[in-house]
Design brief:
mainly alpha
């Protein structure tokens, strides 16, 4: 029994679809499973599609026309979705990490030395 070989057009379509999923913030492990289910390919083939899509996605950021503000807000959106999913599943350590990372990315000041409750000597203000 021989399997039908994928055409260049089908391969490009899969890769374009995978890039759009990466843009939406789908994680790579989840995307691999989703690719295998959606396109009816093995996990090994799905990993190849995701790997190539990720390469294409990264190459797009080497372009000089990338709007850094849009990139920042895409990353923040991804972190927010991650925190929401983690909270729903009870993974509070992940929530804390995602919120801390969002704070650092937005430079809101909660990670600065002047923040009440954050001391250089390791002692915290307890009230």
């Amino acid at each position: 029994m021989t399997r039908k070989r994928v055409t260049k057009e089908e391969k490009a379509q899969r890769q374009h679809w995978a890039v759009s999923q990466i843009d939406k913030g789908v994680g790579f492990s989840e995307l691999t499973s989703l690719t295998a289910e959606t396109w009816g390919v093995s996990r090994r083939q799905a990993r190849t599609v995701v790997k190539e899509a990720h390469k294409e996605w990264l190459d797009a950021f080497n372009d000089q026309d990338i709007n850094q503000r849009d990139l920042l807000f895409q990353c923040l959106g991804r972190l927010e979705r991650t925190a929401r999913k983690a909270e729903e599943s009870g993974n509070y350590a992940c929530v804390i990490g995602a919120v801390a990372q969002m704070n650092r990315m937005m430079a809101l000041g909660a990670d600065q030395a002047g923040f009440r409750g954050h001391r250089h000597n390791g002692h915290y203000c307890r009230r």
